[in-house]
Design goal:
The protein is α+β, with helices and mostly antiparallel strands. It has a single domain, classed as first zn-finger domain of poly(adp-ribose) polymerase-1 (2-Layer Sandwich), CATH 3.30.1740. The chain has 3 helices and 5 strands, in the order E-E-E-E-E-H-H-H. The strands form 2 sheets. A 3-stranded antiparallel β-sheet has the order 1-4-5. The chain has a two-stranded antiparallel ribbon with strand order 2-3.
């Protein structure tokens, strides 16, 4: 059984990388942080909008996801994908 801590909202003191989209979380920006033992003890840091997108994804608790494999919601790439009808 996979264990998840309660998510907390943090303010970055240094630059981090979002596990969901792979983009940078700049110092001073807000992000969501939680801990899991999905693939060993891991600290997950995500943009708030990426965390919200993750919560809407079915099966994420069982299957997990690869770092950077998703597009950040509201990003230019997402707008291009939507205009092509791929999302």
């Amino acid at each position: 059984m996979v264990w998840f801590s309660e998510p907390t909202e943090q303010t970055a003191r240094i630059r981090h990388q979002c596990e969901w989209c792979g983009q940078k979380i700049n110092a001073g920006a807000h992000y969501v942080r939680y801990v899991t033992d999905f693939d060993g003890f891991t600290i997950i840091k995500l943009h708030p909008e990426c965390y919200a997108a993750m919560l809407k994804t079915d099966g994420i608790e069982e299957d997990g996801f690869l770092s950077g494999e998703h597009t950040r919601p509201g990003s230019e790439e997402e707008a291009i994908e939507c205009s092509k009808g791929t999302t």
